[in-house]
Sequence to fold (334 residues):
Amino acid sequence: MGDPFGIGPEIVARALGSRDLRNAARIIVYGRNDLLAMTSERLGIEPFWFRVAARSERAEAPILNDCVVLDYPEVELESPAAPRPTRSGGMLSKLCVEDAITDALRPSGAPRRVDAVVTGPISKESWSLAGFRWPGHTELFAHRTRARRHAMMFVSPRLRVGLATAHLPLMEIRDILTIGRVFDAIDLGSELCRDLGIARPRIAVCGLNPHAGEHGLFGDEERRLIEPAIEVARSGGVDAHGPFPGDTIFIAAAAGRWDFVVAMYHDQGLIPVKLLGFDKAVNVTMGLPIVRTSPDHGTAFDIAGQGKASEGSLVAAIELAIALAGSRATTAQA
Fold:
């Protein structure tokens, strides 16, 4: 459900209020029953879930209801005067994510196993206040699942984008970027496209510097790091091209000339994604042994509890998680 004081409870209530979505998968919400109930009442949504205490024996038995809330009443939530980052919000949201990861890693057939995890928006400040130092969900999932490599990617109606680096200070990117990081983003992006039914995706790779370095006039990272990564990917059969200037390649991708774009850093990729598809974009972590998606927005404390938040991105994240879980299951059976 994400941070309890953000828009998480509201978008969960709105999204799962749709019976069509609940009919598409068995939904388990890790969060707080009281918050979801109060939020649903305020929004005029009839209760649609079955409550199970997360630490009860009942939670270890098979859950057959189409929508279940795993409740964590043992976490005492402070009541801020206005929605904001809090220690208790960080404690609850982190606990819920950890349990969801544990359940996704359970063996096939285990009662608590889930096929995919959709994470509601968390506050990194809340996690910090609670004593957790993870930069975000992506890094936590990679660590807990012992992923050898991973990449943050985004799927929207007009763009699919992957990041070679993610949650880093801008000044550190030059020291962190490597051939391997760029290659992983290209290779995992190709895998994501194939999961989405694109048999031979066309992948464009951004440069790091303005004008993609202008043949070394504005930096040499394109020649030292990005071009070799593209060549390695192409030698492995990936249809990758570039590096292209980041200020123009997204125009061609949005027009349909490219199936996927690899950006070198967070804002280079996220600005076009959010500009063209904010309410429909989905964050996907590729390289994990489990499926993980999330809405492409934060906690929005400034509008939390006001009934203004749109559930569009969360609905898209749930639908994509269902599709990716189905694709992996089909591949495993083949």
Notes: The CA atoms of residues 91 and 130 lie 6 Å apart. The chain has a mean pLDDT of 94. The longest helix spans residues 312-333.
